[in-house]
Amino acid sequence: MQDTSFAIHPGNKQQIEGTNHHDIGNVRSFKKKEGRFVFECDNGTVNVLFYSDSVARVVMNQKQDPVLEGSFAVIKEPGYVDVSVQEKDEEVTLTAQEMSLHVLKAPMRITFKDSDGQIIVGEGKKGMGHSHEGKVICYKEALPYEHYYGFGEKTGFLDKKGEKMTMWNTDVYAPHNPETDALYQSIPFFLTLRGGRAHGLFFDNTGKTHFNMRTEAGTYSFSGDSGQMDYYVMAGPGMKEVLSQYTSLTGTMPLPPKWALGFHQSRYSYETEEEVRELVGNFLEKSIPVDAIYLDIHYMDGYRVFTFDEDRFPNAKQLVADLKEQGIRLVPIVDPGVKEDPEYEAYQEGVHDDRFCKYIEGNVYYGDVWPGNSAFPDFTSDSVQKWWGGKHKFYSDLGIEGIWNDMNEPAVFNETKTMDTKVMHDNNGNPKTHRELHNIYGLKMGEATYEGMKNNLEGKRTFLLTRAGYAGVQRYASVWTGDNRSFWEHLQLALPMCMNLGMSGVPFCGPDVGGFAHDANGQLLARWTQFGTFTPYFRNHSAIGTLRQEPWSFGEDVEANVKKYIDLRYIWMPHLYKLFRDASLTGLPVMRPLVFEYPEDKNTFNLSDQFMIGDNVIVAPITTPDTEHRVVYLPGGEWVNYWTDDIQEGGRHIMVEAPLDTLPIFVKADTVVAHGSPKQSTAVKEDNFQLHAYFGKIAEASYTIYEDDGETFGYENGEAFEKSVNLSYDSDVLTITTEDLNTRFTPDWSEITIVIHGAFDVTEAALNGRNVEMEKLDGGKLVITVSR
Ligand code: GLC
Q: What ranges does the record give for the region Disordered, renumbered to this chain (predicted)?
């Protein structure tokens, strides 16, 4: 086209090779302005800001000054960071304590280095750019031996090296498979592991974004169809530090009420009050623990949110109260679509008070969902947040404490599966199109719901489950992975999917146990429940028209097997609760891949079929039919078989027998886990608190017990029980030392039973310097009871 006028087209700027993007070009000027560093370039303006010594943000805008406010994900303000600036002809260097940015001027290329001067994130031939249509892109150098984790809710294996991924919240009922890309959640964050060290990158863009980790050409890229190029680099240096840095930006999960960690039972739908009562009766009669029952869309009057169908549920309040008496919570579904019905209060209010998403011309957007033609609240406006949150008084007044948000991508039954991208969001007076804000619809609905319920519950913790979300969703909700199927393959893919969600700042997640669509079978339900015992979120849910899959649906043997593992969930509850507490403080996931603990061990880099709970327990579920054994990888060190107490030398793959009632579990030697006893629900008092220590060669282990009331925010004011217990043995003497760290809450239990596995030679035990009685059991087990 060089022979036409196109040769002098005003858009003919330097292109990024092989793309239709313009390169950012050369730096024309550099200055420091109000705590940020401003680079005026040929094709845009770039700002650099520091959030801490190890977190920096880069924002590029091709049209105007970069917009720095208004992130939906980041709740942290840039901090005061001591940055030294050095400007030379070719380069500007910005140096903070843990990282430095080296900005080459011609053309602009940014290299991030750690405090040792090693490159963390580099740019080479290609850097930042943008296209005529307003798309933005950034290329980074990729090294052949690095690995990528996170990216939220994605199918496929753990390591995302070689993957191309799109972020666009999408309702995908079609079977999820390795090719399924955009799902319900969009979390444009990932960690790079490189030679045992890690760094993070978060691309804060709420429109459709793309990650191309097909790194053959030595680069990876991330790009957005709209918005600015706005990303944060976290310097690590380990995976744990990266995740803490990421969650210091986007927030950590609030500690859920303990009942949210119990076993939950759902079905699309338990349609009537009698059906719910009968269901609960079955759980009680069979002594199968359960903490929550879900009400899917049939509870409503014509699918109108904030209503009950009074024929099916004549006395919802009494039902909620009766269930609570049994220690069981009722969790109703709430979708965003408000039925277009001039005689329905929520719709009337929404129209009168201008609460719904509209086109720029002023007409309300309607889409077809369960209730038929529906309007969609514009959650980007604070007043709509308050209105929607307040509407949940309908539920809290009935005694309901937890809500299930669904269809909040938002899903619409049309070709595009969602809202018209031309619809506007008010965004508190800074209107943006749905195209630009699509991925935060679920997040903002979650915020409105969580804050509303929290406010209504006056000091009690609420629980929210959501299908859609964006970075930061952990602040409000737990996440289930949507409409999976009763396929073994879907059990398999749930492991890396949940591990990657955990590495994306979302510790509280899990799949529909047993599979949602398609018919389950007994074996699948048994194996899936075994896995669910250790997923942070544990709910059995299935679709209308499929075989029933409550624990007793496949005969007595399966029922006994499923009950054993639901019981096991409650046995492990004290430990899980402590891990949730840790996650709420640090942002580190409860369920995590082995690579998170063993980042130097190449056997863990893409290990997708086993996982860890905290830093010391490996769980290796069976995920194929008719399989009674599997290979388990144990990293270096010693590992104790939870069921047999056999000690295995790690650093190798072992073959493990796993008949249908056995889930392989290994505890790292010289560590402790806390146990309670099986119970009908978390509402039953714990009277059998145990610490199980698994002694190996070191014969030393310690644990910090954490307990609180499990239900209020008292713990935020320090109303908790924390006690450290240290165990060691030497020359046949077991030494126990304990220290009360916090006694402002009094647990239900008054004694701690310490069970030491592998204490063969102990002949004497001392607690805080005094001899104590001990009971020796077969197999090297030792039991000592100490008072709280
Ligand atoms: C969606 C949800 C599913 C729910 C159904 C009916 O498919 O993902 O969990 O049961 O809608 O509300």
A: 1-21
